[in-house]
């Protein structure tokens, strides 16, 4: 089922966590920040919205490095209920798509809860003070990748954040599959 996250809560402080990456190492979210900011993306392996744009996510993460913006992706889905989102499959997904950024496993879902992540993909763009300046879509793609000339909403917003410290006032929310929460005990 499609989910839409809330609008940007400007100034909300990023939350740090140390999570296992597909490289087998532990990574702090804050350690991924560049000198001008950080994007924290909640994604997964099985979501058709993510699959439609994963190449664009990888491209934008790489292009944002030149703007001094770091990037990290986190999978928080319940892998027992959704085996395609398992840690082993995360490794395969990252390798198949040439991730140039850490892909972290939020097994207990505490990080997704701390961020209020709603869907995959869900993008949180922070400035160099690690306060939220963007919570919007990658571009106008949905379950199918849109035209190659779509406006790069995340990329353009984060370029603005890199230059000014502030995100655009007008933002269009991302749309994607809801986070697959574990059953409560």
UniProtKB/TrEMBL annotation:
Any Pfam family the entry gives: AhpC-TSA
Stored InterPro entries: AhpC/TSA (IPR000866), PRX-like1 (IPR047262), Thioredoxin-like_sf (IPR036249), Thioredoxin_domain (IPR013766)
GO molecular function: antioxidant activity; oxidoreductase activity
Source organism, top-level taxon: Bacteria
Gene3D superfamilies registered for this protein in UniProt: Glutaredoxin
Residues covered by the Thioredoxin domain: 8-160
PANTHER family: OS07G0260300 PROTEIN, THIOREDOXIN-DEPENDENT PEROXIREDOXIN
Protein name (Swiss-Prot/TrEMBL): Thioredoxin family protein
């Amino acid at each position: 089922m499609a989910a839409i996250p809330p609008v940007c809560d400007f100034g909300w402080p990023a939350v740090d966590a140390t999570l296992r990456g597909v490289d087998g190492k532990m990574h702090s979210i804050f350690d991924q920040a560049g000198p001008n900011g950080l994007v924290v993306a909640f994604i997964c392996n099985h979501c058709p919205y993510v699959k439609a744009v994963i190449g664009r996510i990888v491209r934008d993460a790489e292009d944002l490095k030149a703007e001094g913006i770091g990037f990290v992706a986190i999978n928080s889905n319940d892998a027992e209920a959704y085996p395609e989102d398992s840690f082993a499959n995360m490794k395969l997904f990252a390798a198949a798509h040439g991730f140039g950024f850490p892909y972290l496993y939020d097994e207990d879902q505490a990080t997704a809860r701390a961020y209020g992540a709603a869907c995959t993909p869900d993008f949180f763009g922070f400035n160099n003070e690690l306060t939220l300046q963007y919570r919007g879509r990658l571009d106008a793609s949905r379950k199918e990748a849109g035209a190659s000339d779509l406006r790069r909403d995340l990329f353009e917003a984060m370029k603005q954040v890199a230059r000014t410290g502030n995100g655009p006032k007008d933002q269009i929310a991302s749309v994607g599959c809801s986070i697959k929460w574990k059953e409560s005990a």
